[in-house]
Predict the 3D structure of the following.
Amino acid sequence: MSKPKLSPQKLLAEIKKTDLGVYLLNHLQDLDVSVAIVDRMGDCGGLFDSFNRQIKIDSSLSMAEALHTFAHESRHAAQMMNVRADGQIQGRLGGMTRTFNITSNPHSFAMHLLMAEIDADVFAVYFLHDHRVKTGS
């Protein structure tokens, strides 16, 4: 028996159960980033598509996996997008660009990618912990 597919409505309802989840959804809306549940992503449970400004989450994930993926990819969206003071959205590589001059050499670029992944993973773990503490699930 196959497990039911993840639905966007259930995922969004679960995210909205905490203040941090509501904050993330509002921040994504400010960045003009949407969330989509998609089929057959292969080995990838999710990704942030910066070109289309969309977080894609695989429909075969469990709710806990989907929440982790949502938080991880939301962090990537925040790393790559910026809202200017005049309200216009511009793409960027995040605040870490100042720390690692990614145009200077391949090592700096590799460090930037590694730090972005670590940052997104740490945030996702924090998000899941906050969700479990606040909802008991």
